[in-house]
Design a protein that fits this description.
The protein has a domain of about 150 residues. Helix content is about 20%, strand content about 45%. It is built from four helices and 20 strands. Helix 1 runs antiparallel to helix 3. The longest helix is centred in the last third of the chain and has 22 residues.
C-alpha cells in the first residue's frame, strides 16, 4: 500500500513542488518541509496497492496547528487546487496508510469528561481550577521520542498564589495577605501510548507528562508543586485508561474480529470513501483526535504482532 502526495508553491499545481510517499508496510510518514515551508498553496494525493490513505498539511513544523486533510481511497486522486485560509502557511505534512477494514474510538467522547471529573476531585480544596475543558490531540514524532506517535490529553489551569507575605515595605506589610492573590496560568499534559495488550484488547498508558507555568515571581514554586501532582496522578490515570481496553474487548466480541496495531489520526475520523463533496477537510489539531483499530482475521493479526509495534517513517 502506498500513499503519494505532491505539494506545490502556487495555486493550480504550479511553481516549485516536492513529492513524498509512504510505502508498503509504513503507517506514517512525517515530513518537515524545507524550502516550501510557508509557501504551499496547492497539493494533491493518491493511494495505490490496496491502500486507502490520508494526507495532512499542518501550519506548524511539528505536525500540529491547523491542517488541510485529503481523503484518498485506493485508486483515487484528491486535491486542493487552493488551500484557501492555509495558503503559504503549511510547514509540515503527514502521510497515513489506512486499512480497508477498521473501527475507531473518539477519545473526546470516551475520555474528556471522565478526565475532567477525576481532575476536579484531585484539585478539590486546592487553589487550582480548570480553565476550560480538556483538549485531546495527536502528537506525532515528538523530540522526546521521535519514532512514536501518542494521544495527548491536556488541561489548562489557573493556580492562585497568595503573595501577601511578599507585600511589605521596609518590613511592614501594607495589605492583608488575603487581598493579594496572583493568578498563574499553567497546563498539564499527558501523552498516552497505544498498543495491544492482546489480539482483542487495546492498551493505553501514560508515557510522558508535560507541565507548563507562565513566568512570574513564583513560577518555580508553582511548577514544582504542580508537576509533582501531575506525575503523582499517572497511576490513577492509567487505571482509568483501562476502560478503553474494556471497550475495545467488547467491540472485538461484537465484530467477531481481532485488532491490528492501533494508530492515531488528527481531528475527527475522515469519511472513507468520501463523497464528491468531502474529498478533504480543513481542521485544527486541537479539536480532537481519533483512535483507529485495524480489523484483522486471526492469522493476519499474528503476523502483525510479530512485527515492529508501529511502522513509522519520517522525512527530513
Amino acid at each position: 500500500m502506498t500513499v503519494i502526495t505532491t505539494l506545490f508553491e502556487h495555486q493550480g499545481f504550479g511553481g516549485a513542488a516536492n513529492t513524498f510517499s509512504a510505502g508498503r508496510g509504513t503507517r506514517y510518514r512525517g515530513v518537515r518541509l524545507g524550502g516550501l515551508a510557508n509557501e504551499v498553496t496547492s497539493f494533491r494525493a493518491s493511494a495505490t496497492e490496496g491502500s486507502d490513505g490520508n494526507v495532512y498539511g499542518f501550519t506548524h513544523r511539528d505536525f500540529d496547528g491547523r491542517f488541510a486533510c485529503l481523503n484518498v481511497p485506493e485508486g483515487w486522486t484528491s486535491w486542493y487546487s487552493d488551500v484557501g485560509p492555509l495558503n503559504d502557511d503549511i510547514e509540515s505534512a503527514l502521510l497515513v496508510n489506512r486499512d480497508k477494514e477498521e473501527t475507531s474510538l473518539d477519545p473526546v467522547f470516551w475520555l474528556a469528561d471522565a478526565f475532567a471529573t477525576q481532575l476536579d476531585a484531585m484539585l478539590a480544596g486546592q487553589p487550582v481550577r480548570r480553565d476550560g475543558d480538556p483538549v485531546i490531540s495527536g502528537v506525532f514524532f515528538p523530540a522526546y521520542d521521535p519514532e512514536r506517535v501518542f494521544l495527548r490529553i491536556q488541561q489548562n489551569l489557573v493556580v492562585e498564589v497568595d503573595v501577601g507575605s511578599q507585600a511589605e515595605v521596609l518590613g511592614v506589610q501594607v495589605l492583608p495577605s488575603d487581598l493579594i492573590i496572583d493568578d498563574y496560568h499553567s497546563s498539564i499534559a499527558y501523552d498516552i501510548f497505544l498498543d495491544l495488550a492482546s489480539l482483542r484488547r487495546l492498551r493505553a498508558e501514560v508515557h510522558w507528562v508535560t507541565t507548563w507555568v507562565e513566568g512570574g515571581m513564583f513560577t518555580d514554586q508553582v511548577f514544582e508543586q504542580l508537576h509533582a501532582q501531575a506525575t503523582g496522578a499517572v497511576g490513577t490515570l492509567n487505571q482509568a485508561l483501562a476502560a478503553l481496553g474494556d471497550l475495545s474487548e467488547a467491540i472485538a466480541i461484537i465484530r467477531r474480529r481481532f485488532f491490528g496495531q492501533p494508530y492515531v489520526l488528527p481531528g475527527s475520523l475522515p469519511n472513507m470513501p468520501p463523497p464528491s463533496s468531502n474529498f478533504g477537510v480543513i481542521g485544527d489539531s486541537n479539536e480532537g483526535a481519533t483512535i483507529v483499530l485495524p480489523l484483522r482475521s486471526f492469522l493476519s493479526d499474528v503476523a502483525d504482532l510479530a512485527a515492529v509495534p508501529a511502522a513509522l517513517g519520517r522525512g527530513p
